[in-house]
Amino acid sequence: MTPDNQFSVYSKTPDNLGNLDNDPFLNSVFLKALEDKQCVNLKSGWHTSHIANQDLSLFLPSYIKQHSYGEYVFDWSWAQAYQQYGFDYYPKLLSALPFTPIPNPKLLGNHNLEQLSQLCEFGRQFCLDNQFSSWHINFIPQAFAEQLATHDFNIRLGVQFEWFNHSYNDFEHYLNRFTSRKRKQVKKERKSAQQAVTSIRVFDSHTEHQLDTQLIKQFYYCYQVTYLKRGQQGYLNQAFFEHLFDVMPDNLALIAAFDEQDKMIASALFFKDQQNLYGRYWGCLTEVEYLHFELCYYQGIEYAIKHNLQRFNPGTQGEHKLARGFEPIYSYSAHWLAEPTFQPAIKQFCAEEAKQIRLYQKECLKRIPFKR
């Protein structure tokens, strides 16, 4: 193994990571913001433990976890099984983007099969040396998952809902793909939401409406109120969002609704790169029928069409996205367990789950609103 291919664990994100296709998440700015603003730390149960080679040409964002919150690949039943048989499931090693269920490469940099083998060997040994129960690599491309399957990882399937831009001229052009009944329903929802508020505005680095500190505070208030309604608290703090708006404004867009006093009553924050739009955070002060759909989905689609973005990921879960034209796609995650006793059961679990997921995806395809 050459020195550059020797892997190490980094307790902080290095400053000089590359950026794959201007990815707004897999880069130093986003990952360091999570650390510097104390969104990920020992107290929150996310202990930064990135895996990288010496020249940082390969980098895998990773965290030692003391729980399974904020991951969106649910393994609570695995943890319960471990407990029932007298084993500790936590701590575990997670390679993923905190609180961000976005499918992207995760392993930053181009790797060959030998380097992947070395990475897997290093990661497994790191788990064994520190008595971690397992190693999980979430929301990865299918090709990467298939490679990891050859290194004793179990692969789990999931379903997300994404929108694809088929060279639409505008939203009306997009709606022309819908059946008549579904098209009428979307128009009804949009009209109802838009008439219930005084204005809806888009804020980004390219519009006349610029992001400022006051807007960020209003957005964050909406975000936290929405969590508090469920008796929870948002994973991310105001300092984190303020920092992102300051250091990566070209990767952000805020779409917000205002009342007659020009008070923000709901907002959706999007991330973007050169090809993709990502719906990430939503908040509202008052419940307005269809306003969530308008800000998080319809306005996002309009934004993607206007800016020639090819793909829109609005966030994980939610079958209601199907009726708005989001299509069911597979998501992939890889899982290695240190305890051999559980390997047969987990392998069978993943195989049975995959069968159900494939059936579910087929059923979802029948419910998309496009003309046949």
From TrEMBL:
Keywords linked to the UniProt accession: Transferase
Molecular function GO terms recorded: transferase activity
Keyword Transferase included in the entry's annotation: yes
Lineage top rank: taxon: Bacteria
InterPro entries registered for this protein in UniProt: Acyl_CoA_acyltransferase, FemAB-like
Transmembrane segment boundaries: none
The protein, known as: N-acetyltransferase
